[in-house]
Amino acid sequence: MRIPCPYCGSRDVSEFSYLGDAAPQRPDPSGDASSVEAAFFDYVYLRDNPAGPHRGLWYHGAGCRNWLVVRRNPSTHEILEVALAAKEPAA
User: Fold this and answer.
1) Engineering a disulfide at 13: which of 1, 56, 88, 91 sits with its beta carbon 3.0 to 4.6 angstroms away?
2) Superfamily of domain 2-87
């Protein structure tokens, strides 16, 4: 699989490290303790397992050392979109 890095061009996947799903957003720690605890449990341990396209965080450690948000279909390995994580709007 090759990932088109915005700075380095098309590069082999071995140059990247996968962090995980880009969708989860850290919950607000203020509020009722039991609801905050439940929100953090969901944030840390529960993930969807979509069959189709999803967004993941990738680190280009052997290249420009930027974090990327890669939208791809894990069933076909098709890369649909790549953006710098710093410029990606929150989901």
Assistant:
1) 1
2) Folate-binding superfamily (3.30.2270.10)
